[in-house]
Give the backbone structure.
Amino acid sequence: MLIFVTLEITIKSIIMKKIALFTLAVIFGLSFGQAQGDFTAGIHGGLPIGDAGDLATFAIAVELGYLFDVSDEFKAGPTLGYSHSFGEDIDTGFGTFEVDDIQFLPIAAAGRFSITDEFSLGADLGYAIGINDGNDGGFYYAPRAAYSVSEAIDIVLAYRGVSLDGGSWDIISLGLEFGID
């Protein structure tokens, strides 16, 4: 019975990952055939908090996106990223053990609203595929605030979360986002 339950969970995980990748391919394919937009690339460092803070010490995230001008103040489009949290060495009193690193591949829709020429708010919503063994992934959400230091560079403060079975994996990050022409 346990073998069938494990097999069913594994099959569902594989199907979800394939659906997410297919959806991303369709979104990017439609993106290039429709309107003009801007490529973005970002790199961020972060601190795991909550449950993640008990198991990891530091996180890095990189992302690529393509944002369309919906209006003068609003941009939207697809984004794809990679997040890597470095596992912590935990002392149990009987010895220490090393927690494995945790990796996610977030695939999301991004929205950005310009409050002023320098300041914007936004969010990424989608699905984060778990890359390492035993990590199926979950719903991905990343509200963010950005300050433009130049026409092509933003400083971004974000809260990145992945809803998992029985909890969440949360990170507060600070980084740079670059406009690519």
Remarks:
- The chain has a mean pLDDT of 85.
